[in-house]
Amino acid sequence: MIHCAPDAAYQLLKKFYQILTGREVDDALQPIQQQHAQDSEAPYYAKPTISKKMKDPELDRIADKLTKTKVAKTVITSHNDTLRNERMTNPDRFKRTGFASIKGTQVASAKVLS
Lower CB density within 10 Å: C or N end of the chain? Predict the structure, then answer.
């Protein structure tokens, strides 16, 4: 494959399995898989930024500019909503330190494209 969309290979193998055997693949996570998913969650410092999300190859594949702009707005809005939820659930993590509270210093924020 030249380009592999997220989860595309797994979906293809599931389809082959279904065609060859006539049975469905059980996608339910087992308890050990659920624990692994929780343990492998990225730490806060390693979570993707808006810049990283905007460089997604799937976004680059969209040829229509209007559709691409709509998807970009959705990505940015979703990212900002996620950050807002994190600030509400863990406010201590987002307390400003002495450096950020210096008079005249502004903290950058992402704005939705207009």
Answer: C
